[in-house]
């Protein structure tokens, strides 16, 4: 059935296969997941009242998704030559672009863990996943509210959308758990940590503190559950999971996705009056002369997602060379 006409510009439909499992054994059987469920109930917060929304945001203090090495654009003359007003305007829009990716990722997480309630076999897993649905609802709420202080909502990058669609469409529940809880959640937790370190805004810091705490729990769920599960999995299923992780990371690291992210930066630069042809030429020349500059900067996939795949034994002799090709090994 197609969506109501009024929503056609904002809805996107994908058809996903789901094997929904009832479990009539209500006794707890995975203690670590039950413990996590208790922690999740204890640590609920309210996006309406636990964020100091009455404090105003100074857009120059919002910060960017950058590591300790700072903003990569600072290497370029076109950026150094900007007036203060242009630089502030550019950075305000870049922040909103990044936060828009967080926002869309949060919706994706809500959709995925809604599925997890249905597909995971254990009652402890179902109860825990139910808490995560409300966690992700809160995250959608806070990022949407916050972006409104800065700018508009920017579109979702195709690599992120492709990863989440692959998770939503995966047939094995272990793939959903791996793609969302381990890869996407680790990346989100890392990105929130990085942005928290760069922001001078009290409201965003509180938003990131609370969401990061939830994301850490979401990653724990994936690691605990999959570690248990991998022990009993056939070699064929283990290989399928390894390949799913590789393919998912490959979607994020694909040249087409990276190029699209670069294109959005150029569009934003154009909006604040930067000569994008000249800036593009300078960037291309500098990258040509110093190829390391392109990959410089902290990458939350490399820093946070890959170590968790290693913890699960999914980066092994067979798959390691592929991660090395993507320059993702530490
Ligand atoms: Fe989230
Ligand atoms: Fe999450």
List the helices and strands and how they pair.
Elements: H1 31-42, H2 77-80, H3 84-119, H4 123-147, H5 158-169, H6 173-198, H7 202-232, H8 235-253, H9 255-271, H10 276-289, H11 300-311, H12 320-325
Helix pairs in contact: 1-4, 1-7, 3-4, 3-5, 3-6, 4-7, 5-6, 5-8, 6-7, 6-8, 6-11
The structure holds fe (ii) ion (2 copies).
Structure description:
The protein contains 12 helices and no strands. The chain is mainly alpha-helical and 330 residues long. It has one domain: Orthogonal Bundle (Ribonucleotide Reductase, subunit A), CATH 1.10.620. The site of one fe (ii) ion has 7 residues, from helix 3, helix 4 and helix 7.
Describe this protein with a few key phrases.
globular; single chain; 0% strand; binds fe (ii) ion; mainly alpha; 330 residues; 12 helices; Ribonucleotide Reductase, subunit A
The Rg value, from CA coordinates, equals: 21 Å
- Could you report the average pLDDT, rounded to the nearest whole number? 93
Number of domains: 1
Helix content: 55-70%
Report the top-level CATH class.
Mainly Alpha
Overall geometry comes to globular
Proportion in β-strands: under 5%
Largest sheet: none
The CATH topology annotation reads as Ribonucleotide Reductase, subunit A
Give helix and strand order, one letter per element, not per position. Answer: HHHHHHHHHHHH
SS summary, helix count: 12
CATH homologous superfamily label: Ribonucleotide Reductase, subunit A
Task: Report the CATH architecture.
Answer: Orthogonal Bundle
By secondary-structure content and strand pairing, the structural class works out as mainly alpha
**Strands, total number:** 0
In angstroms, what separates the terminal alpha carbons?
Answer: 47 Å
Q: Which stretches of 5+ consecutive residues score pLDDT under 50?
A: none
Bound molecules: fe (ii) ion
């Amino acid at each position: 059935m197609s969506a109501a006409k009024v929503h056609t510009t904002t809805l996107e439909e994908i058809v996903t296969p789901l094997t929904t499992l009832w479990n009539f054994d209500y006794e707890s059987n995975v203690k670590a997941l039950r413990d996590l469920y208790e922690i999740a109930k204890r640590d609920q917060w309210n996006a309406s009242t636990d964020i100091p929304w009455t404090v105003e945001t100074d857009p120059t203090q919002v910060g960017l998704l950058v590591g300790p090495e700072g903003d990569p654009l600072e290497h370029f003359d076109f950026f150094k030559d900007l007036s203060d007003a242009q630089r502030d305007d550019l950075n305000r829009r870049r922040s909103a672009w990044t936060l828009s990716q967080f926002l869309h990722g949060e919706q994706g997480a809500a959709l995925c863990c809604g599925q997890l309630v249905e597909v995971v076999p254990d009652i402890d897993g179902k109860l825990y996943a139910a808490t995560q649905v409300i966690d992700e609802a809160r995250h959608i709420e806070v990022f949407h509210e916050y972006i409104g202080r800065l700018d508009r909502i920017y579109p979702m990058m195709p690599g992120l959308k492709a990863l989440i669609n692959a998770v939503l469409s995966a047939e094995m529940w272990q793939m959903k758990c791996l793609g969302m809880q381990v890869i996407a959640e680790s990346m989100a937790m890392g990105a929130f940590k990085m942005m928290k370190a760069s922001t001078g805004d009290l409201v965003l810091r509180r938003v990131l503190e609370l969401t990061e705490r939830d994301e850490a729990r979401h990653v724990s769920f994936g690691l605990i559950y999959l570690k248990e599960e991998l022990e009993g999995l056939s070699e064929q299923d283990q290989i399928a999971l390894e390949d799913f992780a590789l393919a998912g990371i490959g979607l994020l690291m694909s040249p087409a996705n990276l190029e699209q992210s670069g294109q959005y930066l150029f569009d934003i630069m154009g909006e604040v009056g930067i000569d994008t042809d000249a800036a593009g030429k300078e960037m291309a020349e500098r990258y040509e002369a110093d190829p390391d500059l392109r990959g410089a900067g902290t990458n939350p996939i490399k820093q946070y997602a890959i170590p968790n795949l290693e913890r699960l034994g999914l980066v092994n002799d067979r798959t390691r060379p592929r991660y090395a090709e993507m320059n993702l090994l530490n």
